[in-house]
Design brief:
Layout lengths: L9 E2 L23 H8 L7 H13 L3 H21 L4 E5 L9 H8 L4 E6 L2 H8 L10 E5 L5 H6 L1 H6 L7 E5 L11 H10 L6 E7 L6 H11 L11 H4 L7 E2 L5 E2 L24 E7 L2
Parallel strand pairs: 2-3, 2-5, 3-4, 5-6
Antiparallel strand pairs: 1-4, 6-9, 7-9, 8-9
């Protein structure tokens, strides 16, 4: 455990692939909108295709605050990673990480702790393609990228790439940022998170954000859900009462489970942004909690 030996699943910290050098995986179906690539579009990224852009634009038309939600979610990720790293956690498992972007988990964690270890978990072949093209900027073993599906938590926990990088007997930050709203209740969403929580050592943290209908109109929520039915995963917006149980018996850090932009905003204020919709329209919850 924690020896600096590389495996086939071990990558390096995110660096950027030149657009002219990047080619999509041959097995990729670019005709089906993919949730990670739609999110990349909301953030202003370029790793998306026509089907993704069309679906994303339809979703934005139904809910104009979507780009602002994506941006504030990325900001929450950065604040939460820094928060738990400041409290001594040096291991991070980021499930559903999506396409690499500025402000990634490893980038933020290593600003606080250069020795932080990060495992990215995703089932999108685009993520794996980027990972294989990354430049070697950190010691082997400090960042791993594994292909696995959140709906199969045992495979994640037993994956040799994760086991080579993370010691589950020590505190870990489990990150489920904007991913659980793509898992249906009938697929065992609560059981999946419980399995992952139970595998964590005392002192571990759960960093979670989740889309909700609570701050959007009924029409916007319904139309967004309809649009995602044609994407790679359904959209399951949950009210606060259905999001809180994902934390189980973990104890919330202040301010608890709150509307996304209100989780420990920087400089004592919430961002209003320069995109359509104010922060009050960001219809998502966020929270960080610790295992006793």
């Amino acid at each position: 455990m924690h020896e600096d030996t590389a495996t086939t699943d071990v990558g390096t910290d995110w660096d950027w692939v030149k657009a002219e050098d990047w080619q999509p995986p041959t097995e990729l179906d670019t005709g089906i909108p993919h949730t990670a690539r739609m999110y990349d579009y909301y953030l202003g990224g370029k790793d998306n295709f026509e089907a993704d852009r069309k679906a994303a634009e339809a979703a934005i038309a139904a809910y104009p605050a979507l780009p602002l939600l994506a941006r504030t979610n990325r900001e929450f990720l950065g604040r939460a990673v820094e928060f738990v790293a400041d409290r001594g956690i040096r291991q991070f498992v980021d499930v559903g990480t999506g396409i690499p972007a500025v402000g990634s988990t490893s980038e933020v964690a290593r600003r606080v702790a250069p020795d932080a270890r990060v495992v990215y978990v995703d089932n999108d072949p685009i993520v794996a393609t980027h990972a294989r093209a990354l430049l070697a900027s950190h010691k082997a073993g400090h960042t791993s990228v594994i292909e696995a599906d959140l709906r199969d938590p045992a495979t994640i926990l037993d994956h040799p790439g994760l086991r080579a990088a993370v010691d589950l007997d020590r505190p870990v930050a489990l990150m489920l940022v904007a991913v659980l709203h793509f898992i249906r209740d009938e697929d065992g969403a609560q059981e999946i998170v419980r399995t992952l929580r139970d595998a964590l050592a005392p002192g571990s943290a759960l960093i979670l954000s989740h889309g909700s209908p609570d701050f959007a109109s009924r029409e916007s929520a319904a139309e967004g859900t309809r649009i995602y039915k044609s994407a790679s995963a359904p959209l399951v917006l949950r009210p606060r009462a259905a999001v809180e149980p994902f934390f189980g018996d973990f104890g919330f850090a202040g301010p608890g489970l709150v509307q996304l932009p209100l989780w420990r905003p920087e400089a004592g204020h919430v961002p209003t942004g320069d995109l359509p919709g104010g922060w009050q329209d960001v219809s998502a919850y966020a929270g960080v909690a610790f295992k006793a």
